[in-house]
């Protein structure tokens, strides 16, 4: 018995052992890109075969590859995958939101469960793709994801629920599929004839039952092209067709609302809320929609006031007024990530300060002082045979991957080298493991990319309520600049900001105008009050 226990403990220990090495260089990013390209489905989008998962953090990595190298293949993989997903059955065309994964290579037949983390990470990928391409298709997809989350996945207090089940009435997908007769009864014969063609409905159904191999008579709504592209064939202006679709979608939505709904998992989880908070914050910046920042703030306030104990330590779960389960590393990492993104959307210094305080606590409770990196469980948690430590970026990224980016952001925001030192310790702790199979750690590679490429610290000294300051802040979000961090300094927060980020102390308005100080490695260029000059500095262009 003792020998078996020892053997199991040794096996577990090996499972959580990682290979250290020198810090990786750009060759690692290139190798990861090639591996991803080899697994890319150039015909149908996505990666590998069925089942196909969205893998949005892989898309985020590819966007940085495109930004770094200009290789069109990187952007092509992202665009093809996002469009295939958005047009396919994995997207809920009537009520919005993405289902969990596709059971087939063509994104038609989903596992119908909807997860909060998928909405958050896919929205982020859409938003960054929109920044690069300026294609409204991606902005609209992000908007519709946010519409779904605010409508169906948000608690009265403003925190976000976890998931919606796949099943209703004991049958997977029953809530989402349509028979042709039912579809016609809702829309009427005239409209139905057109929209059956657009949405690919068939009298005997448009997918095969996995068990029997027979068509079921049920249809999953999906598209073979964006709706606006049907306008010429239907002799309608694109705007008129879009309006018609919205009216029809509303009819289908109201009808579907009367069905028995899948169960909602109304747990509030800190880690997944952190991811959604980050997505709403990014949406607020890129889509210039303050409502999204308010949604992120409500989630943050709920967690920070309702899900901590009197020592400031987090709980993982809240449901029906009850807190449960001590928070793990992922809860801290994802919440810090959400708060840092929220600061970039609102420039309310309280969120950056909370992020730094939580990062301190995470280092105290989860850091491995011997090998580096974060354990999954706190040092005061119930004793386990081996303390787990995770790095693999699966359906959601690992706590260590997200923490690497958090530490680097904090280092750049504050100028404090302690954050940078921990980030580099983490890089070395996992470098050997990541080098062996880099495409399995693509969120971790976001941090590698961040540390390898000089970015900018942009300090805008201004009264944020004035028009000139708002124009400057809006310009920060026009272009994809993943290595930029920004701070806002005003008369009201100058002293407090100096304590958080000491290097901002001497950065002032010039001639009373809103002034951008664009710094690299905390060495700042000539300050400017010209918005175009600021953007040129950020993009590394001459002005």
Task: Characterise this structure.
With 543 residues, the chain is an alpha+beta fold. It has three domains: 21-172 and 264-453, Glycosyltransferase, CATH 1.50.10.10; 180-244, no CATH class; 457-539, Glutaredoxin. The chain is 50% helix and 8% strand. It has 19 helices and 14 strands. The strands form five sheets. It has a four-stranded mixed beta sheet, with helices on both faces. Strands 3-4-7 form a three-stranded antiparallel beta sheet. Helix 3 (56-69) packs parallel to helix 16, helix 5 (116-133) packs parallel to helix 10 and helix 10 (270-286) packs parallel to helix 12. It starts with a helix and ends with a helix.
Keywords:
8% strand, Glutaredoxin, 3-stranded antiparallel sheet, Glycosyltransferase, 3 domains, 543 residues, 4-stranded mixed sheet
């Amino acid at each position: 018995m003792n020998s078996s226990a020892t053997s199991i403990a040794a096996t577990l220990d090996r499972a959580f052992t990682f290979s250290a090495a020198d810090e990786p260089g750009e060759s690692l990013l290139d190798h990861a890109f090639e591996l991803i390209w080899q697994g890319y489905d150039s015909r149908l989008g996505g990666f590998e075969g069925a089942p196909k998962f969205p893998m949005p953090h892989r898309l985020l990595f590819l966007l940085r590859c495109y930004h770094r190298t200009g290789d069109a293949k990187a952007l092509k993989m992202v665009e093809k995958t996002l469009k295939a997903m958005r047009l396919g059955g994995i997207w809920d065309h009537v009520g919005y939101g993405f289902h969990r994964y596709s059971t087939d290579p063509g994104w038609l037949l989903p596992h119908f469960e909807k997860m909060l983390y998928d909405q958050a990470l896919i929205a982020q990928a859409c938003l960054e793709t929109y920044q690069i391409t300026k294609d409204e298709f991606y902005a609209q997809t992000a908007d519709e994801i946010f519409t779904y989350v605010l409508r169906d996945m948000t608690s009265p207090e403003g925190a976000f629920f976890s998931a919606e089940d796949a099943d209703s009435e004991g049958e997977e997908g029953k809530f989402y599929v349509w028979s042709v007769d039912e579809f016609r009864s809702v829309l009427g014969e005239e409209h139905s004839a057109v929209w059956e063609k657009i949405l690919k409905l068939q009298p005997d159904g448009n997918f095969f039952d996995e068990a029997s191999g027979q068509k079921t008579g049920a249809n999953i709504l999906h598209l073979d092209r964006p709706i606006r592209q049907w306008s010429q064939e239907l002799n309608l202006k694109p705007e008129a067709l879009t309006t018609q679709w919205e009216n029809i979608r509303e009819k289908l939505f109201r009808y579907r609302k009367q069905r028995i709904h899948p169960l909602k998992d109304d747990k509030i989880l800190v880690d997944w809320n952190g991811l959604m908070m980050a997505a709403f914050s990014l949406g607020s910046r890129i889509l210039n929609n303050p409502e999204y920042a308010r949604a992120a703030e409500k989630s943050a306030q709920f967690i920070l006031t309702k899900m901590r104990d009197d020592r400031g330590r987090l709980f993982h779960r809240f449901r029906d007024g009850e807190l449960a389960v001590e928070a793990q590393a992922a809860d801290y990492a994802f919440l810090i990530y959400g708060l840092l993104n929220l600061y970039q959307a609102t420039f309310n210094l309280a969120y950056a300060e909370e992020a730094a305080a939580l990062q301190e606590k995470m280092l105290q409770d989860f850091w491995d002082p011997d090998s580096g990196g974060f354990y999954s469980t706190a040092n005061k948690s119930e004793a386990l045979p081996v303390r787990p430590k995770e790095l693999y970026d699966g359906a959601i990224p690992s706590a260590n991957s997200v923490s690497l980016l958090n530490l680097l952001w904090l280092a750049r925001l504050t100028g404090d080298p302690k954050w940078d030192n921990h980030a580099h310790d983490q890089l070395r702790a996992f470098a050997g493991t990541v080098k062996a199979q880099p495409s399995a750690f693509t969120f971790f590679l976001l941090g590698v990319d961040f540390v390898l490429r000089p970015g900018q610290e942009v300090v805008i000294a201004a009264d944020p309520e004035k028009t000139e300051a708002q124009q400057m802040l809006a310009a920060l979000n026009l272009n994809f600049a993943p290595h930029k961090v920004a701070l806002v300094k005003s008369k009201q927060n100058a002293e407090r900001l100096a304590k958080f980020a000491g290097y901002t102390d001497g950065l002032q308005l010039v001639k009373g105008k809103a002034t951008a100080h664009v710094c690299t490695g905390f060495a700042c260029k000539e300050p400017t009050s010209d918005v175009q000059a600021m953007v040129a500095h950020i993009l590394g262009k001459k002005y």
